[in-house]
Amino acid sequence: MATLLQEITAATAARNEAERKRLLLRLREELGSLLPVGATVFVFGSLIQAGRFGEHSDLDLALTCRPAAFSEFWLQGELELRLGRRVDVLLLGETRLREKVEREGLQWTL
C-alpha cells in the first residue's frame, strides 16, 4: 500500500510527464509556424528527458542558423508568449555547448 506522499509524488510525476509531452508537440507546431521550411532546430535539456521535466523547467533550443526574418531573441519571446514557459534559444555555432547539444539533443528539421 502506497503512502500519501508516494501517491502525491507519483501524481506530480505523471502531470509533469504529460506536460512535457504536450509541450514537445506544441513546440514543434509553433516552430513550424515561425521558422522556414527546412530549418534545423535542436531541442535539449529536461524537455527531452523523461522524469527530469518539472513545473519550473524551461525549454532549451539551439538553432543551426540565425533566422533571416527576425532575431533569435524575438523568437525566444514569441515562443514564451505562445507556450507560457521560459524559453532559451541558442545559436549552435556560437555556444560552447555545441558538441553536447549535437550529441544529446533531439534534432528536428521543420
CATH architecture: 2-Layer Sandwich
What percentage of the residues does DSSP assign to strands (E)? 15-25%
SS elements, strand count: 4
Outline the low-pLDDT stretches: none
CATH topology: Beta Polymerase, domain 2
Fold and architecture overview:
- The protein is elongated.
- With 110 residues, it is α+β, with helices and mostly antiparallel strands.
- It has a four-stranded mixed β-sheet with strand order 3-2-1-4, sandwiched between helices.
- β2, α2 and β3 form a beta-alpha-beta unit.
- The longest helix has 31 residues.
- The protein is built from three helices and four strands.
- The chain has one domain: Beta Polymerase, domain 2, CATH 3.30.460.10.
- It starts with a helix and ends with a strand.
- α1 crosses α2.
List keywords for this structure.
110 residues, alpha+beta, Beta Polymerase, domain 2, four-stranded mixed β-sheet, 3 helices, 45% helix, 17% strand, elongated
How are the SSEs ordered, and which strands pair?
Blueprint: H1 4-34, E1 40-44, E2 59-63, H2 72-83, E3 87-91, H3 98-104, E4 106-109
Parallel strand pairs: 2-3
Antiparallel strand pairs: 1-2, 1-4
Summarize the structure in short.
With 110 residues, the chain is an alpha+beta fold. The chain contains 3 helices and 4 strands. It has helices at 4-34, 72-83, 98-104; strands at residues 40-44, 59-63, 87-91, 106-109.
